[in-house]
């Protein structure tokens, strides 16, 4: 009995740790290192943040591949899976078509570093490694440990709420911001649950961030 409780409790505690680390620990560790080594925040913020983000992604992939390897299997998607992926993007487009989804800080940093190689390192966060990390945490880790396959979709609701909470620091405490990101998180959670794979939600998340910032991307990297 004790062993059974331990086996069911340990993954949940580890999942809570991963979520907490994403919400608070990642940037705390980064800022601590920058301060201890007396490194310039302007020059080293994104290089160090990207390094720790990639390391965190690697840890999560190793953990999830051991615990839930099926979500990483590249299997032929059924027609319904393709439909769900397109539908997810379409629903998000209809809801967020007038909203800029990349945080103001990152937008300003991209503009600031426009003529610097650091612009590429800044862009990695919202367009590549950021979406991968968020999907691994809020879909891969959270939804496979709490209320999995709940008939009331509590796994999707919890994923949506925590995903939204994770974005409040970029926009400030606002019910409107919370609602918007919760809706986005819920759509991505449904996509993960229905396709049984982490890849569609990652691709939709990346594609959406890139789509909404395409004018900014072309201005930063292609217009001179």
What does this 3D model show about the protein?
The structure is a single chain. By secondary structure, the protein is mostly helical. It has one domain. Helix content is 78%, strand content 0%. The chain contains nine helices and no strands. It has helices at residues 2-36, 41-67, 79-96, 104-112, 118-141, 154-171, 175-195, 198-212, 214-221. Helix 1 runs antiparallel to helix 5. The chain is globular, with a radius of gyration of 18 Å. The relative contact order is 0.14.
Q: What would the principal axes of the Cα set say about the shape?
A: globular
Gyration radius over CA: 18 Å
Residue share in helix = over 70%
Class from secondary-structure proportions: mainly alpha
Give the SSE map:
Layout: H1 2-36, H2 41-67, H3 79-96, H4 104-112, H5 118-141, H6 154-171, H7 175-195, H8 198-212, H9 214-221
Helix pairs in contact: 1-2, 1-5, 2-5, 3-7, 3-8, 4-5, 5-7, 5-8, 6-7, 7-8
Keywords: Membrane, Transmembrane, Transmembrane helix
GO molecular function: endopeptidase activity
Transmembrane segments: 12-34, 46-64, 84-106, 118-140, 152-172, 202-222
Question: How would you describe this structure in keywords?
Answer:
CAAX prenyl protease 2/Lysostaphin resistance protein A-like domain-containing protein, globular, 224 residues, mainly alpha, 9 helices
Provide a quick synopsis of the model.
The chain is an all-alpha fold.
């Amino acid at each position: 009995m004790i062993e059974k409780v331990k086996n069911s409790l340990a993954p949940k505690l580890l999942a809570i740790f991963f979520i907490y680390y994403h919400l608070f620990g990642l940037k705390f560790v980064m800022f601590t290192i920058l301060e201890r080594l007396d490194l310039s925040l302007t020059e080293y913020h994104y290089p160090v943040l990207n390094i720790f983000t990639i390391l965190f992604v690697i840890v999560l992939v190793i953990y999830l591949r051991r615990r839930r390897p099926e979500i990483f299997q590249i299997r032929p998607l059924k027609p319904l899976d393709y439909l769900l992926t397109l539908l997810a993007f379409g629903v998000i487009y209809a809801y967020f078509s007038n909203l800029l989804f990349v945080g103001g800080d990152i937008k300003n940093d991209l503009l600031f570093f426009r003529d610097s190689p650091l612009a590429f390192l800044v862009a990695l966060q919202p367009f590549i490694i950021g979406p991968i990390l968020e999907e691994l945490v809020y879909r891969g880790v959270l939804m496979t440990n709490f209320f999995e396959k709940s008939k009331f979709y509590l796994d999707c609701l919890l994923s949506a709420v925590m995903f939204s909470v994770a974005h409040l620091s970029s926009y400030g405490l606002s019910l409107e911001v919370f609602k918007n990101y919760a809706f986005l998180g819920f759509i991505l959670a449904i996509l993960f649950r229905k396709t049984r794979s982490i890849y569609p939600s990652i691709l939709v998340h990346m594609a959406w961030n890139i789509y909404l910032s395409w004018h900014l991307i072309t201005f930063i990297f292609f217009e001179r």
